[in-house]
Design goal:
- This protein is an alpha/beta fold and 320 residues long.
- The chain has one domain: NAD(P)-binding Rossmann-like Domain (Rossmann fold), CATH 3.40.50.
- The protein is built from 11 helices and 13 strands.
- The chain has a 7-stranded parallel beta sheet with strand order 3-2-1-4-5-6-11, with helices on both faces. Strands 7-10 form a two-stranded parallel sheet. A two-stranded parallel sheet has the order 8-13.
- α4 packs parallel to α5 and α9 runs antiparallel to α10.
- The longest helix has 28 residues.
- It is globular.
- It binds NADP nicotinamide-adenine-dinucleotide phosphate.
- NADP nicotinamide-adenine-dinucleotide phosphate binds next to β2, α4 and β7.
């Protein structure tokens, strides 16, 4: 298939391009900077299949340029992986990036979706987020309501996810698929050994809040790419939670992660102190976050995620 990828040079975009080409697809990668985009998007792509990769140059905020690019390419499928997230993962950097990241997802995404519809694209997949389900017992599935009453940033994200998924899935002119990814790890992410969270953990600046009962669902970026290709090829329109098999409470994954990095054990802070120092969102992530079930992706996409990298040799109980 001919596939147009927006966000092709980001953390998921790079392994996604390699996977799509390896499966024999023809790919056109959108980038704002052709030279930088080419260097990034070709990472991990074998020379022999590079002839199936081309580039389109546009800023997603330029609706006319995006429309012209997609109309010119005439793809059968569009995959949107747009974000504008900082290289560091702190309350301050995330808060500073929030306005542009929201604008990219809303306005940028709307421009790409409108252009795809105008060009008669058959299928449209977009990045979404797995971790905004309402807190509760057990794992969330695709039907679980989102956390609209959570901390301010989480509630805002739950509203954005609802809005962008509604605009896509409610569009009668194309087959829409929302891929709700778990916390991404792997090369180029915050959780890679050279990433920002690893650095914070080494400096004991990434604490367990309260009892560390918040449950995180993880996803290696290569698995994100594999699941995305499967969804593009044979997924059903709708929502898929794309997460690994082992949702883990913070007290479990963070301790094992520190050990894996040869870092000192993570410090613990009380909920009250975390609230005062880092804010309500940090407390939510640390104590209330709910894990997600990948049962639908396993059933319909034959998704077989790898075990969390730093838990492989560690015996832990599964959180559920
Ligand atoms: N679920 C999760 O946990 C999750 C999800 C996403 C990201 N993250 C994390 O966030 C960090 C950064 O992620 P990332 O590498 O994907 O983000 P990024 O480096 O900001 O890349 C985002 C992609 O969006 C494109 N883009 C951004 N603004 C654009 C614009 N105005 N017009 C056209 N294209 C635009 C970029 O293309 P060009 O620069 O080539 O134009 C790039 O391909 C990583 O550590 C990652 O792990 C986590």
């Amino acid at each position: 298939m001919k596939i147009f990828v927006a966000g092709a040079t980001g953390a998921i975009g790079r392994p996604l391009i390699a996977q799509l080409l390896a499966q024999g697809h023809e790919v056109v990668a959108l980038t704002r900077s052709l030279e930088k985009g080419q260097t990034l998007a070709e990472q991990g792509v074998e020379l022999a299949i590079r002839q199936s990769l081309r580039f389109a140059n546009a800023d997603v905020f330029d609706a006319d340029a995006v429309k012209a690019a997609i109309t010119r390419v005439q793809p059968e499928v569009v995959i949107e992986q747009l974000t504008s997230l900082p290289k560091t993962y702190t309350a301050e950097s995330m808060s500073a990036a929030s306005a542009l990241n929201t604008r990219i997802r809303r306005e940028g995404g709307a421009n790409v979706l409108a252009a795809a519809q105008a060009a008669g694209v058959r299928r449209y997949l977009r990045q979404s987020i797995a971790f905004w389900a309402i807190p509760g017992t057990g794992l969330a599935d695709e039907e679980t309501p989102l956390a609209f009453d959570a901390s301010p940033a989480v509630a805002a994200d739950a509203h954005i996810v609802t809005e962008i998924e509604r605009d896509l899935l409610g569009n009668p002119n194309l087959e829409g698929i929302a891929l709700r990814y778990g916390f991404l790890y792997g090369p180029g992410t915050w959780f890679a050994p050279d990433g920002d969270v690893a650095q914070q953990v080494r400096q004991q600046q990434f604490p367990i809040v309260g009892n560390g009962e918040g449950v995180w669902s993880w996803l290696h970026i290569e698995d994100a790419a594999i699941a995305t290709v499967a969804a593009a090829e044979r997924g059903n329109p709708g929502i898929y939670l794309i997460t690994d098999d082992q949702p883990l409470a913070v007290c479990e994954w963070l301790s094992a992660y520190a050990q894996w990095l040869n870092a000192p054990p993570p410090p613990q802070v009380s909920v009250e102190d975390a609230l005062r120092i880092s804010g309500a969102d940090a407390v939510y992530y640390g104590t209330q976050m709910r894990g997600a079930s990948n049962a639908k992706a396993k059933r319909e996409l034959n998704f077989q995620p790898r075990p969390l990298e730093w838990m492989v040799n560690t015996a832990v109980a599964h959180a559920s």
